[in-house]
Write the structure tokens for this entry.
Amino acid sequence: MISVHQLVPTISPRDAVGNHTLALRKVLRDLGFESEIFSMFRHPDLMTETHYVDRLPGDAAAVIYQMSIGSPIAERWARHPGKKIANYHNITPLSLIGKWDGLLAAEVQLGRDQMARYAAICDHAICDSDFNKAELDALGYQSTETLPVLFDISDANADKSTLTRLRRSRHGTQVLFVGRIAPNKGHHDLVAAVRTLRDLYQDDAHLHIVGTDGPPGYRRVVDTIVAHAGMRDHVTFHGSVTQEELVAHYQAADVFCCLSDHEGFCVPIIEAMHHGLPVVAYDCTAIGATVDGGGLLLREKSPLTVASALHRVNKDEHLTGRLKRAGRRRAIDFNRPGTEALFRDRLLPLIESA
Amino acid sequence: MTDSQSDARYFRSVVNEIEAEAQRRTASGEYPRALLRSLDEEFRRWIPDASLENGVEDTIRGIEAAAYLDVAVPVDSRNPLGRFVKWFVRRLTYFYHRHVAQQITALGIHVTRPLRLLNASLRSLDRRLCELEDRLDVGATTRSELLAGIATFPIATDFREPLSGHLLGAPGRVLLGDHVDADLLQFLRAGGVDVYGVTPSAGEHQIADVRHEGLIEHLGHLEDESLGGFVLCGLTDKASLNEQLRALRLLLLRSKPGSAVAVIVVHSETWSTRLGPVAADLFDGRPLHPETWNHLLLREHAVGVTAIESLDGTSTLITATLP
């Protein structure tokens, strides 16, 4: 049996790259390949179904490296005799996180250096978005293509107690953002925008932030800004939540707002669209291509503009209806059977040529 | 027209209305200006000076956390027998692992002590460096604020032909940065030049084969002698003298022998007239004169250095070949 394995620096069941890696293993197995996942840091829940990196067999026909951060294990991929396929999910630029998290900065720097170095040895690169593809093309990667990230748009039932709690406490516009609390995600901009919405439109708006803490320094700054803006009672950090709780958040909110300065794709935007939540997003990096007509794309993110957009979406029923319909239509592009089929169609000839 | 096209058009018109409303409120002062300014200041106040601020401290905490070893090895297994065997081995070897773990923990504590001293020294060094930087370039913040409001000077269209002719046959990929003119990029590609762009500007990211990052940062990732040529522009109109010279030095290092190189520079007079006296004063007399670029390239023993002035007399293209 032909072996096609995956190498990933860290594997965890609750992050986009981890979910994609697990889904891709299923695609490869469905194609009849022997496929395993090798990683250096494995989440306890995945210990029995993944392997430590040193067990990667040398006779695999192809090895897919999930590239999203710098890691010494990338060198194993680079030296592997099989076909080398990179799956690029983007590496946050150093300029956006360097000052906030020294350790992450070192990993990001290593990742960017490795990415540039591997242009010469990578046989083929699969990218989540055209934005990511452009980065690799600019580095001189010879063979690149864009294929959507694999993820399950959950049809899980909303957690009832969470939904009840969220709906009971609602007054004005309920603004939701889902993503790690990191400087490139622009949480401080969200606080300023919702504060402006409250001031300018006399809207008792509330900001819900779902996601784990990133650099501790940034979280401290966001907390300071929340306090300084007098928003302690109007911003809730929900931390990491279960799939059912996440669905409850999507169902309870009025609008999903993303003001990130850098995204390689942004899965929560598609999840929000799937759950019929209107999307307002700042158009930068890969965001425009991800939204692709399924939401409102702002060319700038001054608090005033964002507040005006949030107010308009919440008050204009015709606009809200069209945003919901357009979002749902866009989310269909990422339904799992369809994206899996794309991967199957592309991977089979690619690996057979190895 | 499909539903998607119709919706997309409608959403664009809504965004235009939203932006118009925001502008109207800005013009009339109808928004919490003082509050937003104070939030922005608060954010800037807390941005760390450098990664050193957290990096070493985080590393030490990481070592301290990792030094406390958990001797309870996971016993999960695909089959129940495996789980039992693992559990049994763990019980059997517990005394041994605990002994080793205690020694490693002690080692971790000893390792982090000198690291903490080192961290204190680095912090002190970092503070002194910041003070020194402030003394050396007190206008940096003012300049960066001005820069945000200044549009990039367009590249004269009459430079396209001579540039294409000069870069054709370059011994490798040609870098265009840090202002990427989409039409120029297309023109060069159509002419057979293997060119890619590098720009920090968010507005230019949709062009294919363009990297969205600072030029100096990008050059930091490249291997020496990996480029077949470069076109330096944009940065020549707005960066500090030090940044311009640093970009040139890195470009020369990353270029192969025989590389085709070019610099596009706006004339100082045009620049001053366009931006006015405030920017001219605070930007400290930039950009450099074409003669200076000539001199810098000749100093690197470049051959065939040629200067071409644009038809409207506002800028100059300097081309050369590296030895």
Chain B is about 60% helix and 15% strand.
